[in-house]
Amino acid sequence: MNRIIIFLTAFVLLAFASCSSHKYHTTRVQNLDFNQFKTYGWLEPVDSLSKDYYNNDIAKGNIMTTANKEIEARGLTYSKENPDVLFRYIAIVNNKSRMVYSSPYYAGWGWGGPWGWGGPWGFYGGYYGGSYPVGKERVRYGHIIFEAIDRKTNSVIWQARGTTEVNEPEKAINELPKAVTGIMKEYPLPILKK
């Protein structure tokens, strides 16, 4: 019974872990009051010199529409003339390699063979073997990086990155709103309550 509970618990934890495929990282200028910024504008996206997965009208539209919505939900107003803070994004898709490991195995044993001397109710023991590296595989990762720049000082005051594995370009583009929303959650201002 205990094995079944342990197995089900491990399965549920694995299922929840696999639901969040994006990873987010952020950095900012400490002790800076982000409430001072009331208006925002955009700089042109930075050319990432990577694969063109995110360099199309649909991807740009998904990124910009979601980002504008998230920024304005935090109380900033878009301004083409003299914004307080400027945003830009960088989209990168690159190839990396990662180790592939063998599956762990279970070696069971008992008294007198698989049925033991006591039949199926006999004593059984066993051990689990670990996995070991068997090779490498190429993996494609997509990164969306947002930066906020103080227009007065022309310096980056906030940066956040969302990273996910890219297996299908179309799926990655369709998931851009989710990625941008996750990145903007890292911005130092909360969403204003209406």
Automatic annotation (TrEMBL):
PROSITE patterns attached to this UniProt entry: PROKAR_LIPOPROTEIN
Key word Signal present: yes
The keyword Signal is assigned to this record: yes
Superkingdom of the organism of origin: Bacteria
Residue intervals of the DUF4136 domain: 29-188
Signal peptide extent: 1-23
InterPro entries according to UniProt: DUF4136 (IPR025411)
Annotated keywords: Signal
Coiled coil: none
Protein name: DUF4136 domain-containing protein
Organism: Sphingobacterium paucimobilis HER1398
